[in-house]
Amino acid sequence: MSTNIWVWIAALLTLSVYSFLYKDNPIYRFAEYLFIGTSVGYSIGFLYWNAFIPRIVRPVQAGDYIVLIPTFIGLLFFARFTRKWTWLVRYPIAISLGIGAGISIPLTIQAGIFRQLQATMVGDFTISNIIMVVGVICTLFYFFFSLEQKGVVGGVAKTGIWYIMIAFGAIFGYTVMARIALFVSRVQFLLHDWLGIIK
Amino acid sequence: MIENKTNKPQRDGFWEKLSKLNRRYIYMSVGICVIVPLLIRMRLPIFITPPTKSLYNVVDKIPPEDPENMLIISFDYDPSVMPELQPMGVALLKHCFAKKIRVACMSLTVMGIGLAEMATEKAKEEFPDVKYGEDYLIFAWVPGWSIVILKMGENIKETFMADYAGKSLDEFPIVDKIHNYEQVPALVCLTGSSTYLSWITYANTRYNETICTGITGVIAPEIYPWLQSGQISGMLGGIKGAAEYEILLKKNKLSKVEGTASVAMDPQSITHLLIMLFIVLANISYFVIRRKK
What we know:
By secondary structure, chain A is mostly helical. Chain A has helices at residues 5-18, 26-61, 68-75, 90-121, 127-142, 151-194. Chain B starts with a strand and ends with a helix.
């Protein structure tokens, strides 16, 4: 069994969180609030030492006053907290949106539409490629709402639904794996690091 | 209790009782299926899937001990998905340490740097001779997300300026000849969110950088279209992907230690069988009760 106090704290907090599986209780809520508090505290401290100090304070100390311009624009976000100056928040939002859209729109269209379309069209006539192309067309047809989904159109759309259902099944399977993995990891910690039962 | 056609109350049968089973029994059975295989190892076989093999090959082809070639691993996640992604980071680092491939860690998320440090410490347990600053490095966290990815394409040293402890990058020989993505043959993004999309959009599309990803199980299905189009060159999907990579390292004699993901696969497989059993039973129960009504 571990003699490390931090391992004990982590183990007891793990058990506190899992106590929720029986029913909601104050010990669980204590662990939950502690987690939120430490996460926020860590993030604030981390941002102060890794963004504010090296990116603003040190450059200003070195005479690089240009960083004060983006700093000032960023500080305008806090205008949201006052009734009188709340309109000022539009400026940093507008700048962020403008830069973000300018950078991302051309590249996103290229990456997410053109290259993906190309990958759907170009290829050998293998079974997997045919299944993929049929799947893409049928699924897109399901989301085409200007034709009543009857007859041939309905059949194609129904095939699209089948593809979507299979995708949901795959996503669910992967989700089960992910959630169980989180639990297995905690049990490994309890049995190995805390109790020392397994190697 | 259910009511029959004559409105007389009828005692619950097996399927009715099953449909009302207290969820605590389900939790308890999952708990047993996880704990027992950890105590009694079965070593069920694990097969290597093509996306994992592709990622392994991408890393393996990076020239070792070459000052003009470096792998970058981006730890873009926080502790909530650590059980799935941390073994991937450790396995990738072990691969680099064993083959003497120069490697740098970075993160776009606030929590990622601490996790990168933990992963390097874990990997170093098996390779105690690797030296910080010569064989591997952890870049400082820099705010900006997509801007960081784009700026790395111009100048990596100018983007980060310092390592995670605040030391100037000029002090580390590992980055002397690293300028931009041209000296980074591949970048592996470990993430539990949509960060991989930023890497595809800004690093792969803009700079033609080879992007691989280690991803949580929940979003692993989203990666397949990107793999098929070649925009992602390899993938580790969830804990299974991590276990596959650990097995590849052992098979190729690059690591002797059994990784945590490989150990986790026995309880994982047993619990999956249990979940399948639950799904089948629940469906039978549903149809039997519906027919009775």
